[in-house]
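Sequence design from tokenized structure. All designs in this work follow the same two-part layout: the structure record, then the generated sequence. An example of the structure record is given first.
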């Protein structure tokens, strides 16, 4: 099923104070919009995410999500309804079968909730997550209760709301509902049937100043998830080249054959990092035949993997390498190797382990024909599931 997600981020957020609209403010150290986009992308069924913004906020947008590889943002209108309409018109060229419309200021949306909406959408033209109302409802004027409101049959409606794309686009084109606060209002006015699925209490909408503190508390309860990546590499000895291991040139030692600088340590470590985000291997990112990588410093491969981990919301906690090498002795270079890797990954040197051993004269390493390396990387994904594509 082809599903795109539309994130409505064009609001000016006049009810929450701050130097910028709330969808661009930091929550748990990350811009609200960025967290929202990452969570939607963590739902495997969503093929792409497009954001509708106020063009006046373009600089905030670029700062928040400019590195996530999203398609260009859509310019929104003066109201939520106009913004959604503009977003749907922009998606029309891609002709998705289904669309999810989500508020940018619901950054804690659980990927499982997206999954529920999408699952129901397979047999419905419109789906909204809802929550029961448990408090009594009263009409209040001037601080005084003036009357009762029946609670029976009433619920709270959240986003993401899912729709058959052609039907909701047609509804937005035909129906004039300037005051619509969500898209079920437009769908209902167009005669669509709107099904419901259970919503999530933690999928709060950041509206009032205290909502940010509440969202921070929810985030703090979410334990980071950890992933471990593993990498292995081997290179043959080439005495004509300098020996570069873990970004450090070792003097007076035979080097290694390879298309790049043949840094077997950084290659294994690059694969370990790629493994934490299931992003294939070093050879598929940097094909060995590519002239651009001839004699290249392998630090650029490691930096690429580091950036992919960061884009997925990961934080590298620790890396551990073992080099298998008959000669030269590597212990005198251990500190320099750890420092170089720590610099490249933005880690304290204490979080970088480099070990070396010989193979007791056995095998190709023992015959001094090659050097092998193994690496393990531990990456935490704070506050959400990994955004792994
Ligand atoms: Mg290699």
């Amino acid at each position: 099923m082809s599903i795109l997600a539309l994130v409505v981020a064009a609001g000016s957020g006049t009810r929450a104070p701050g130097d910028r609209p709330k969808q661009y403010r930091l929550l748990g150290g990350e811009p609200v919009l960025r967290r929202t986009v990452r969570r939607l992308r963590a739902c495997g069924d969503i093929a792409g995410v497009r954001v509708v913004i106020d063009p006046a906020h373009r600089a905030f947008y670029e700062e928040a999500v400019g590195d996530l590889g999203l398609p260009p943002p859509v310019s929104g209108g003066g109201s939520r309804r106009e913004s959604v309409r503009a977003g749907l018109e922009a998606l029309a060229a891609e002709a998705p079968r289904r669309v999810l419309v989500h508020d940018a200021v619901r950054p804690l949306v659980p990927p499982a909730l997206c999954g529920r909406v999408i699952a129901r959408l397979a047999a419905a033209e419109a789906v909204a997550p809802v929550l029961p109302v448990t408090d009594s409802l009263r009409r209040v004027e001037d601080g005084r209760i003036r009357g009762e409101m029946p609670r029976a049959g009433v619920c709270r409606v959240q986003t993401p709301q899912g729709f058959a794309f052609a039907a909701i686009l047609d509804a937005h084109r035909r129906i004039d509902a300037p005051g619509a606060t969500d898209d079920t209002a437009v769908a209902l006015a167009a005669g669509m049937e709107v099904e419901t699925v259970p919503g999530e209490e933690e999928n709060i909408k950041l509206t009032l100043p205290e909502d940010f503190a509440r969202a921070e508390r929810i985030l703090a309860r979410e334990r980071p998830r950890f992933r471990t990546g593993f990498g292995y590499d081997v290179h043959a000895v080439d005495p004509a080249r300098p020996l570069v291991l873990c970004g450090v040139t070792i003097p007076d030692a035979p080097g290694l054959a390879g298309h790049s600088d043949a840094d077997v340590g950084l290659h294994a470590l690059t694969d370990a990092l790629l493994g934490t985000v299931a992003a294939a291997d070093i050879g598929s990112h940097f094909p060995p035949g590519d002239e651009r990588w001839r004699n290249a410093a392998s630090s650029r491969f490691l930096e690429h993997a580091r950036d992919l981990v960061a884009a997925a919301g990961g934080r590298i906690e620790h890396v551990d390498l073992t080099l298998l090498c008959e000669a030269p002795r590597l212990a005198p270079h251990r500190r320099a190797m750890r420092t170089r890797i720590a610099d490249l990954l933005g880690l304290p040197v204490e979080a970088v382990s480099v070990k070396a051993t010989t193979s007791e004269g056995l095998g190709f390493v023992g015959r001094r024909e090659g050097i092998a390396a193994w690496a393990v990387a531990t990456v935490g994904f704070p506050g959400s599931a990994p955004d792994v594509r």
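The mean pLDDT is 92. We note this feature because it recurs in several other targets discussed in the main text.
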